[in-house]
Design a protein that fits this description.
The chain is of the alpha/beta class. It contains 12 helices and 7 strands. It has helices at residues 19-29, 49-59, 77-92, 97-104, 114-117, 129-136, 141-153, 155-158, 185-198, 208-216, 224-234, 238-248, and strands at residues 38-42, 64-66, 109-112, 163-167, 170-173, 176-179, 200-203.
Length: 249
C-alpha cells in the first residue's frame, strides 16, 4: 500500500490548490519578514494538513527547521520531554537549550508536523507524539503541563521565533477516530474560537467540488458516483479515501 502520509514536499507531486491552501499561504507569507507568530493548522486525521503545509512552505520558499521526535509507546512523560530536547540540541549542533532558541531565530519557522507527530511512518519501531498521546491518554498530561511551563518560562525567547504546528485532538470511539477540534459541531467551533484568541489558526477543509477534484487525481478514482460513495463513507478526508482506493487496485 502506498504511504499517503506526506513527509516532505517531494512526496506531494499532485496537489490541488484549495481555499484552505490559499488561506494558509497568506498566513505563512508573513513569516518571511516578521517573528513571533504561532500558527496552528487544524484538521481531522486524513484531511491533508501535512500536504498543505509542506506545499505552502515550498511554494513560499521558507527556510524551515522540521522538528522531530522518535519515542516508544510506553515512554514516560518526563522522558519524552528530555528526549525531545536532547534530540534537537544534538541535531542543531549546539550546547544547550538556550542556544536552541537562538538558532531557531535564524529560520523562517520551526515546524511541528509529521516527523514530530507521526514519526512511526518514518521508523516503524518508534512512534511520534500523536500516537504516543493516543496510546497513553490522560497519563500524558504531565508532558503537556511541562510544555506549558516551558512556553511561559521562555515566552520572550519564543516571541523571537515563528512556530507552525499541525494539530488535531483525537478521540477513539468504537474503532473510529474523531477529532475533537473539528468533528463535534458547536463544541468544536467553540474550542477553535478559544484557540484563535491565543494563536493564528488555519482550518484545512474542503467544499464538495474541491474534494471531488482532489480525489480525481488518484489513478484509481473511478466515476463521480463511486467518488461520492467514498466521501459518504470516509468524510472529507482524502488520505483515507486514497488508502481505500489503493486496496481496491
Amino acid at each position: 500500500m502506498s504511504n499517503h502520509k506526506v513527509l516532505s514536499a517531494r512526496d506531494n507531486k499532485k496537489f490541488i490548490k484549495t481555499r484552505s491552501f490559499h488561506e494558509l499561504c497568506q498566513v505563512l507569507s508573513d513569516l518571511k519578514t516578521s517573528k513571533g507568530h504561532f500558527v496552528l493548522v487544524l484538521g481531522a486525521p486524513g484531511t491533508g494538513k501535512s500536504a498543505n503545509i509542506y506545499r505552502a512552505v515550498s511554494l513560499l520558499d521558507l527556510e524551515v527547521y522540521d522538528a522531530f521526535l522518535f519515542i516508544d509507546k510506553d515512554t514516560p512523560p518526563y522522558r519524552v520531554f528530555k528526549i525531545f530536547w536532547e534530540s534537537i540540541i544534538t541535531d542543531m549542533g549546539v550546547a544547550n537549550k538556550k542556544a536552541v532558541y537562538r538558532k531557531a531565530q535564524t529560520y523562517d519557522l520551526v515546524l511541528f508536523a509529521d516527523p514530530f507527530l507521526d514519526s512511526e511512518y518514518i521508523d516503524q519501531n518508534k512512534v511520534g507524539l500523536g500516537l504516543w498521546t493516543e496510546e497513553n491518554g490522560p497519563n500524558t498530561a504531565p508532558f503537556y503541563f511541562r510544555v506549558l511551563y516551558e512556553y511561559i518560562k521562555h515566552w520572550r525567547d519564543i516571541q523571537k521565533v515563528n512556530v507552525v504546528a499541525q494539530t488535531s485532538w483525537v478521540l477513539k470511539f468504537q474503532g473510529a477516530r474523531y477529532d475533537i477540534l473539528t468533528d463535534f459541531g458547536f463544541f468544536s467551533r467553540f474550542l477553535v474560537f478559544l484557540l484563535k484568541q491565543l494563536f493564528e489558526v488555519v482550518l484545512i477543509s474542503y467544499n464538495p467540488e474541491e474534494l471531488i477534484k482532489i480525489i480525481k487525481n488518484h489513478p484509481n478514482a473511478g466515476s463521480e458516483a463511486e467518488i461520492e460513495g467514498l466521501i459518504k463513507k470516509f468524510g472529507k478526508r482524502p488520505r483515507l479515501i486514497f488508502e481505500e482506493l489503493d486496496q481496491k487496485a
